Amino acid sequence: MSSDLKIGLALGSGSSRGWSHIGIINELSKLDIEPDIVCGTSVGAMVGAAYARGNIDKLEQWARSLTKFDVAKFLDINTSMTGFVHTERFHSFLNEYIASDEDNIEDLSKVYAAVSTDLKSGREIWLTEGSLIQAVWSSMALPGLFPAIRHDDRWLTDGGLVNPVPVSVCRALGADIVIAVNLNGDIVGKHIDRAGAKALAKKNNSGITKKITDLVKEYTNLSFFNGDEDEEQPPGLLNAIAASVNITQDRITRSRMAGDPPDIVFSPKLPNIGLLELYRASEAISEGRRCVQRKLSEIEYVMDSMS
Fold first, then answer.
1. Measured between alpha carbons, how far apart are the two ends of the chain, in Å?
2. Do 132 and 53 contact (CB within 8 A), yes or no?
3. What is the mean pLDDT of residues 239-256?
4. Distance between CA atoms of 90 and 68, rounded to whole angstroms?
5. What are the beta bridge partners of residue 44?
6. Mapping DSSP to helix (H, G, I), strand (E, B) and coil, where does residue 283 land?
7. pTM of this prediction exceeds 0.85
8. Which residues are part of the catalytic machinery?
């Protein structure tokens, strides 16, 4: 393939399923496919940042080591009711496995962009310069889990609300060939787990803060750690958030990719990995590798046709 052609990698949003990005990146590397442009939304922005910064192997090792208890330690509740994720622990994680606070996007060896959403206007925001960590965090600020992030006098939230698979960003930044990863292809209706709701129904009326705190505890102990269901009860809070986000992102992804299709698209088959099941990284990474292997002939055809 001509060395003048630039390859763009569009890494989509999809919470825990995003570990499959690691498998895809590693498998593409085996084929000597090294993207020049990396654009990500939400978890795609995080994995893409680790890749562009040279920390992908370090991130993979950590992800594979995660346990259910490790994931539970990232959950917290605060009196401001801004989110469920313990922000200090998450910041420490980003610094250790993604990038330092001093790393800037413009200093990376690859062109990089993270997609976020302006909470006030609903506009799509492309973060292509400045703090790498702030860009990642802004792109991952999923409503209900993370507080919105203040950036350039705007409140930013999860980019998956407007552009779950940022093919358009890769094109705009100069990509001749775009390889996309869509994590939202078969997820609608897959994550309604009833255990959290069953636990919630037992709560007393002892105050909203206590009730939400208890819900988080019971969610971490029950609702994504087992498959018990009670069809007579509504879904738990975080499961309802996850299902709602899944529906939104699925519809937006279909629309955006129909209007601006990538040259190659990988769609990992991981419909049963839930919002916070980060401890299933090995499963997701393996499926990412298989995604690439299933499309070897298509990859070869596209690359040859563009040479």
1. 4
2. yes
3. 75
4. 16
5. none
6. helix
7. no
8. 42, 158
